[in-house]
Design brief:
Layout (H helix, E strand, L loop, with lengths): L1 H9 L1 H16 L4 H9 L3 H24 L7 H17 L6 H15 L5 H32 L6 H23 L2 H4 L9 H4 L7 H28 L6 H15 L10 H10 L6 H25 L3 H12 L1
Length: about 325
């Protein structure tokens, strides 16, 4: 019975059904034909500018990831990591969990950098995700408390969840800064993860904190991009409220409950941003375009799968 439930929840059909149901309830009170006309009439320059911004942010995040494995990554290294992330984002439209996405990222990087052990490479993917998540959550928690002081409704369950995540994140950073991780990995159970330990040793802390700096930069850029999109569609969401709500929305969207976040994203945008007086139509336009933008960038990632590198990688895996 448990296996059946797992298969259902991981099924793309189930996620598609959930997306359709959530989209229906999100859009049922607005003029869908008018929304469709506005989305079809988006200026080309606006799409191009946002796609360029999205690709720049992806390259910055790729640089953050490469920092964990290469002391001084060159531009060509960043592009290799960027291609890997683009390819994974394309397949992420179809894969049910982030585990499969991370394995795809791992395959291409391992082919290009065979001297990096598989365990260390997988560890870098997890650490990179952790750095990004922890930065967003710490900033998000600060602004959640600010929102509470202004009387904005933030469910207590979300506050407790984000607070718990932030405490765990800070505990991790305190541990790697003030304690000798080598001692931990001398214990028999943890010895198998010794390669991963290299990522959080004292001499690699500088790389980690550079990564946190990259995360702060990309979050600032992401917030400004959402503000720009909301301005274009007339929602005019303030930077303050975007900083408050987007980390919460991003955390919830990590759960693989819908296709590319469609439906779930719209419901979350409506729940949070309607509290500050924005119209449902402008909120839904902002949310829908954000989702469409993710798909456009992911489809660009699909072009990576046509490259000679990816074809060679597929042939190598078939032989193995």
């Amino acid at each position: 019975m448990k296996d059946l439930i797992k298969k259902i929840f991981k099924s793309p059909i189930f996620r598609l059904v959930i997306s359709i149901v959530l989209i229906y309830f999100a859009f049922k009170k607005v003029d869908i034909s008018n929304l469709g006309r506005q989305l079809m009439g988006i200026d080309l320059w606006f799409i191009v500018v946002n796609v360029i911004f999205g690709l720049i942010f992806l390259l910055i995040m790729s640089y953050r990831w490469s920092l964990l494995l290469i002391k001084k990554p060159k531009i060509k290294d960043v592009f290799v990591f960027g291609k890997s992330s683009l390819m994974a984002s394309f397949y992420g439209l179809f894969l049910p969990t982030i585990v499969g996405i991370d394995l795809l990222r791992w395959m291409m990087i391992h082919k290009k950098y065979p001297k990096i052990s598989k365990s260390k490479l997988l560890g870098s993917i997890m650490l990179d995700r952790f750095i990004g998540l922890s930065t967003y959550m710490i900033i998000g928690l600060a602004f959640i408390f600010l929102a509470k002081s202004k009387g904005i409704d933030i469910p207590n369950l979300i506050l407790l969840l984000v607070t718990g995540i932030v405490i765990l994140c800070l505990a991790f950073y305190i541990f790697i800064v003030f304690f000798n991780v080598d001692k931990l990995f001398k214990i028999k159970f943890f010895k198998r993860f010794s390669k991963i330990a290299e990522l959080v040793k004292k001499d690699n802390l500088k790389q980690i904190f550079k990564g946190i700096g990259m995360s702060l930069f990309t979050e600032a850029g992401w917030v400004l991009q959402i503000w720009f999109i909301s301005w274009y569609f007339g929602a005019n969401l303030s930077v303050l409220y975007i900083l408050i709500f987007i980390p919460i929305i991003s955390l919830i969207l990590v759960l693989p409950i819908s296709i590319a976040g469609f439906g779930a994203r719209e419901q979350l945008y409506l729940f949070f941003f309607s509290q500050i007086g924005a119209s449902s139509e402008s909120i839904l336009l902002t949310s829908a375009f954000t989702g469409i933008l993710v798909i456009i960038i992911s489809l660009i990632g699909g072009l990576v799968t046509l490259s000679s590198d990816f074809r060679k990688l597929k042939q190598k895996n078939k032989k193995e």
